[in-house]
Specification:
2 domains; 5-stranded antiparallel beta sheet; 9 helices; DUF4304 domain-containing protein
Length: 252
């Protein structure tokens, strides 16, 4: 495990985002996850990454720029979601690995190149030796990749209004899940309501129709109770949003 920590330190020292205000949570082998994050008043920009190895022997160890992924937590979304689903406000404690594992991001970055056999992974450690040239090359490639794709993504989406205007207003309802996942329907409705979107009622009806069709479909019989509960949660969300109760929550 010590070698993984050494490689993690090399990754951190070689990426320019550490000079752009991003904090770092060291690699955690239990989650196979390392994190960079930058927190502002209304959102948290996140870059997560894994390291590829056999945990029984840590040899060889591989790394690739495709192991890095980006996303954004918007705090308004989190606070309303956790009020509706768990009747609690999301923790304001220092971010942890488990926080990011258990709390799906609001929006994810999908503009990544196709993974090919040449870019899938590079062995950076084998037979008790760090492959310094390969490690340096992957870190340089990753740094360029982050600066080309992820930093502009973080800059482009500064608010929920940006998501509404650049995605929800332009994409078909059925495509929203490509950008927003983990309770997609609830997150979309929250964004639309907070942004005064004229698509709110239309999307609400579309979402209800999908759940109703699934409840009536014999193919979903084994999931009927889950679907009924899902609709009950959505009804609770509608009431919460349409009553204006969320405004008091966001003032806290």
């Amino acid at each position: 495990m010590e070698i993984v920590n050494v490689l993690d330190k090399e990754i951190v020292s070689g990426l320019s985002i550490t000079r752009l205000g991003f904090s770092h949570l060291p690699y955690d082998k239990d989650y196979n996850l390392g994190l960079f994050f930058k927190e502002s008043e209304n959102k948290i920009d996140i870059i997560s990454y894994g390291i590829d190895y056999d945990y029984r022997k840590y040899n060889p160890i591989s790394l690739s720029k495709e192991y890095f992924r980006a996303g954004i937590h918007f705090k308004e979304i989190d606070r309303i979601l956790y009020k509706i689903f768990n009747d609690r406000i999301i923790s304001k404690d220092t971010p942890t690995h488990s926080f990011y594992i258990n709390h799906p991001i609001t929006i994810n970055e999908i503009l990544a190149p196709n993974i090919t056999t040449d870019t899938l992974h590079t062995i950076v450690y084998a037979d008790n030796t760090i492959m310094k040239h390969e490690l340096e090359r992957v870190i340089i490639e990753t740094d360029g990749f982050i600066n080309e794709y992820y930093i502009p993504f973080f800059s482009e989406f500064q608010s929920l209004q940006d998501i509404n205007d650049k995605i929800l207003d332009k994409e078909e309802f059925a495509n929203y899940h490509k950008y927003i996942f983990g309770e997609t329907g609830a997150k979309v409705l929250i964004i639309m309501k907070l942004c005064n979107s004229n698509k709110y009622q239309e999307y609400k009806k579309w979402s209800d129709n999908i759940i109703a069709k699934q409840i009536a479909d014999p193919m979903y019989e084994d999931y009927k109770d889950i679907l009924i509960n899902q609709q009950a949660i959505m009804d609770k969300l509608y009431n919460y949003l349409e009553s204006g109760a969320y405004k008091n929550l966001l003032k806290e």
